[in-house]
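Supplementary Text 2. Reproducibility record for the structural model of the 119-residue chain.

All settings were left at their defaults, and a single model was retained for analysis rather than an ensemble. We include the record here because the model underlies the residue-level annotations in Supplementary Table 4.
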Amino acid sequence: MGCVRTHPNRIKQHDRVRDITTKWIEYDGYRVIKEPCFTTLTPGTTRAMGRWRPDIFAIKGEDGVIFDAQVRAEGYDLDRLHEEKVEKYRIAPWLIKTIKSIHGLETIKCEAITFTRRG
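Retained model, structure tokens:
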């Protein structure tokens, strides 16, 4: 989890990144859902596989974008962290299929927003 002493500030920074990004996306004409909860089922059953809660889900026309933010301390490889976050959704085609069917979308892209925290 990380340092208990800095955890509240890290959460505040994360939420601020999410909120500022939401404003940019809305300004670009997207409808935004903050922190949606997607429950997915194990294929062929009615048993829940898990819940995914990205920071932002944006919809414009028949296109959707999943945004997941992270705030990390200095010294991390931001490119690697960014790719790991994006890969989290790429390896979940069942999640993408579920979201497409719920919202009637043609495409869904996955993006990560990665920032370095100082101090």
